[in-house]
Write a structure and sequence with these properties.
Elements (H helix, E strand, L loop, with lengths): L1 H10 L1 H11 L7 H7 L1 H4 L6 H12 L3 H4 E4 L5 E2 L3 E8 L1 H6 L9 E7 L3 H22 L11 H12 L1 H14 L6 E2 L3 E4 L3 E5 L4 E2 H4 L19 H28 L2 E2 L7 E3 L8 E3 L5 E2 L1
Length: 288
Amino acid sequence: LQLMVKSFEQAGCSFQKIGQWLSMRPDLFSPDMIEALSALRDDGPRHAFEHSRHEIEAAFGAKLEDVFEYIDPVPVASGSIAQVHKGKLRREYMQLHGMEDLGFQEVAIKVRHPEVLESTWVDADIIFNFFGIIGKVFANYDMAMPFDKKGFYASMVRQLDLNWEAYNLRQFQENFQGEHRIVFPLVAHSTESVLVESWINGQSVSKLFDAVGGEDFSVVPRGARRSAAEVMEDKRKKKLAKDIFDMTIKMYLRDNYIHGDLHGGNLMYSNDPHDDRIYVLDAGLTTA
């Protein structure tokens, strides 16, 4: 399984996207395969910090040290298109460039991987040709891609331009204003290859629900003794599940503007038990 994941990582952005889609299909694949492929969501190949430095300095038109008090050269996460560094904006830079009203200094800095543009289109041709052959060989098994080639290209074009993600975040903030429990990162700056947004502290929702896997849905027998912490955790899970459901239905039925990558790794919750907000990340892919 590790060899399979490594092959997806080395094959390029489009193959990693296919692997991510497969990782969200527990109805088709075994739990151990799902667990292995889930690493492609936020633990993908990482590029050198020198590339990040070059892209960030180009995006701001200034030296890194003039813009940031600090930036961690080790990425906190890396996906198929970009990796994320944690940093803190300099107050002097913010004052000089009219950014005092942002209300935050700690930021997540998303930097697009090098050569991802060139490899994506070649990868897509290979993938669709491969599935075309597989479909003919195994015609009786009704195998098909979850999207057509035109749709795949259209979604990739937007995901590769981080300005689109900045636009999506602002649109979601407008759609959810007044919904205090649903929070999207605030955009500080964006270019085609760099996105700077407010830093979110929290834990992945997918980790909270890890115990609910396979055939065991953690149903507690009637009369079983449970600790106060277990009872509180169950209440929190139910509250999160309801709020995520309500958020998704709002996107579909009221806004017609839908986050297209709502897996558990892109939903965060606070470590503070009194903070019931849900933080929604990675809005590069949307549909309507």
